[in-house]
Amino acid sequence: MAGSALDGTGATVTFGTSTFAAELLDIDWSGRVRDALKSTHMGTTGSHTYIPADLVDGGEVSMTFHFNCTDATATLLGAAAETVTIGWASARSWAASMFCTEIGASAKIGEVMTQTLKFKVSGAITEDTTA
User: Fold this and answer.
1) N or C, which end of the chain has less CB nearby within 10 Å?
2) What φ, ψ does residue 4 adopt, rounded to 5°?
3) 76, 103 in Cβ contact below 8 A?
4) What CATH number should be reported for the domain whose range is 12-35+47-128?
5) Domain boundaries along the sequence of the chain
């Protein structure tokens, strides 16, 4: 299946402790980075040199949902970190401890209202690659 594009339909999000649930529209997991530490010194010639950092930043996860004004999303902003599992449409999943950092909502004439949530990943990510 390498190199084959997949439709995102069927992706899911599961919260470990909160009871929040809504109709998921999109997921964006971005910012997973490992810094490059500059190791250039006075004896280096030609080009800068770098070494990989030991720690990895797990990034952030943004999600958009249908918004019906009764979802208890405001409680997520003040809640403790919890395990959040993203089930990709490929049946594989990524899970990590996360906490909510941002909540937004949108209402436009003639369109379904939506809500966006942003989470910061804290710690290691568990990737289920068995599917």
Assistant:
1) N
2) -90, 130
3) yes
4) 2.30.110.20
5) 12-35+47-128
**What per-residue confidence (pLDDT) applies to 73?**
73
| Neighbouring residues of 107: CB distance < 8 A, sequence distance ≥ 6 | 67, 113
pLDDT tier for residue 1 given thresholds of 50, 70 and 90:
very low
Compute the Cα dihedral for 83, 61, 91, 66 and give only its sign: positive
Q: Among all chains, which residue has been given the structure tokens 């909540």?
A: 103
Note the pLDDT of residue 64: 95
Residue 70: partners with Cβ closer than 8 Å, 6 or more residues away: none
What integer is the mean pLDDT of 106-110? Answer: 95
Nearest to 26 by CA among 40, 51, 44, 8: 8
